[in-house]
Hints:
The protein has three helices and no strands. By secondary structure, the chain is mostly helical.
Amino acid sequence: MARCSAIKPNGERCKRLVADGSDVCSAHDPGRAAARQRAAAKGGRSRGAAGELRELKEEVRDVIARLDAGGLERGVGAVVLQGFNTLARYVELERKIVEQEEILERLERLEAQEAASAWGA
């Protein structure tokens, strides 16, 4: 199999493999732009970040209530809450990565459209 011939926004050549009969991968195929956009939108929703945050909030509230009621040792509660804080930072990091990937895909599509119109396509 051959490698994709597309050049990424950072100037590097794409390293993805292409299907026979094509010179670009599915991520750079202009004919698949709409499908990629739908998949990206669906992918962002399916990750369930909002649901995950709701669960984290419920669990944090439970730990706080248990601490308040004396059903959980303070040291243990502190460590558990630190763990929740770490999870919350990872959820935020994941959100930023997904957002950045979506922006890069949009930029690549715009650059491809601009290049196609510059060549009179």
